[in-house]
Every structure is written in structure tokens, then in C-alpha cells.
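sorry to bug you again but im stuck and you know this stuff better than me. what follows is a protein written twice so to speak, once as letters and once as C-alpha cells for the fold. id like you to explain what the C-alpha cell line says about the fold, in plain words if possible. anything you notice is useful, everything is just below.
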Amino acid sequence: MSKVCVLTGKRPITGNSVSHSNIKTKRRFLPNLQKKRFFLAEEDKWVTLKLSTEGIRTINKNGLYAVVKELRKAGEKI
């Protein structure tokens, strides 16, 4: 499963793990993704989205139906 937020597009980034002796080794910073079910009342069905916590806050602010319309307009299958 890909670690990408459906709404915001956040994905893993790379960086360095720096030890006390300043030795650098590569590591990945993963986004805080949550698999969340929402009830889409306009279509009377449940939708499951993989969202970052920022994406969940966006849905709380703008409303689920508005966000789903934007995603479908962008070509996402929901």
C-alpha cells in the first residue's frame, strides 16, 4: 500500500538520522496517515479514505461532500 494522502498528496520524504557523534545515515520521514471511513449522506454510502491528519482537518472544515467533489474533479476514483 502506498503511503500517500489522497487529499493533500503528502508522501514520505528522506533525510538523515544524525547520531551523537554526528554520523549521518539515511532514513525516511513518513506522513501521519490514517485510514478513515466517512458516511457520504448525499449518496447514502460509506467511503474509506487514506488521509493525513491535515486532510482529516480539511474535511472537518470544508465538509466531506465538497472535498469528494474536488477529488472526483481531479480524477480520483471514490
